[in-house]
Amino acid sequence: MRFVVVTGMSGGGKLTAIRFLEDMGYYCVDNLPVRLIDPFMELVSAPGSDVDKVVLGLDVRADKSFDNVEQVLAALKEKGYKYEILFMDASDEVLIKRYKETRRQHPVAPGGRVEDGIAKERKILEQIKKDADYVIDTSGLLTRVLKEELIRIFVKDENYNSLMISIMSFGFKNGIPADADLVFDVRFLPNPFYVESLKKLTGNDKPVRDYVMSFPEAEQFMEKLEDMISFLIPGYVKEGKNQLVIAIGCTGGQHRSVTIANALAERLRGGDYGINLYHRDAKH
């Protein structure tokens, strides 16, 4: 039987992950009282049980100290039960934004500041995150990409992408993305905006791509950028980083940045990491 414990930061995507895993044929139970975890495992593992894939969702609401949860999981391991831990995470900035959008109170700080709840919850979950087999940061992750990653791990049994690289195009006139780890300015390239036939298109359109990449400096930049990113990735993985956001910017985020972001994603695909591509400011 494959037993997966899904936990993580409130607002980090735990419920979404559980729903996806349920669609993949896993028997899912969320927020089971801690005292029932042991008998639940005995039940689904009993001879004659037709359950062979189980997901158990746990968060701080189950036990606010979380000490009991960790003790129960340790006891299960001593009894011979094998399980994997999937930890869903996101940056503090993204979590705060999600809470503000939904106007929900944080479960660890009801009636208090969301920021305080997030800080307290991180402390509570610190150990189980260290023990996790998989950590997925959903800060800039498209729902489609999250689903693809879960399928890779829990359906196809492919290697876990310990590093998820998000490549984002943006326009400087709308501000630099707050969650960017690396920012590259491609405003040195000729601007298709001033070509009448290309003005209303974006870097997702072939005429714009062909125009931008027709200049030697664009190809030279891509070669140097790919070389640098390829050099940095092993170091990030070694240090335990699980989310890298690369932001490519031009003036409006429509033409050059979109073209270069697409080209970088294409060059980096196929490595031992996940690729998430999105265009923050492109019109289509």
Outline:
With about 280 residues, the protein is α/β, with parallel strands linked by helices. Helices cover about 40% and strands about 20% of the residues. The chain has 10 helices and 9 strands.
- For the largest beta sheet, what order do the strands appear in spatially? 2-3-1-4-5
- Report the sheet-strand fraction: 15-25%
The termini sit apart by 44 Å
Mean pLDDT: 90
Give me the oligomer status. Answer: single chain
CATH superfamily caption of the largest domain: P-loop containing nucleotide triphosphate hydrolases
CATH class of the largest domain reads Alpha Beta
> Judging from the principal axes of the Cα atoms, what is the shape?
elongated
In CATH, the topology of the largest domain is named Rossmann fold
CATH architect. name of the largest domain? 3-Layer(aba) Sandwich
Query: What value does the Rg take, in angstroms?
Result: 22 Å
Unreliable spans are none
Order of helices and strands, N to C?
A: EHEHEHEHHHEHEEHHEHE
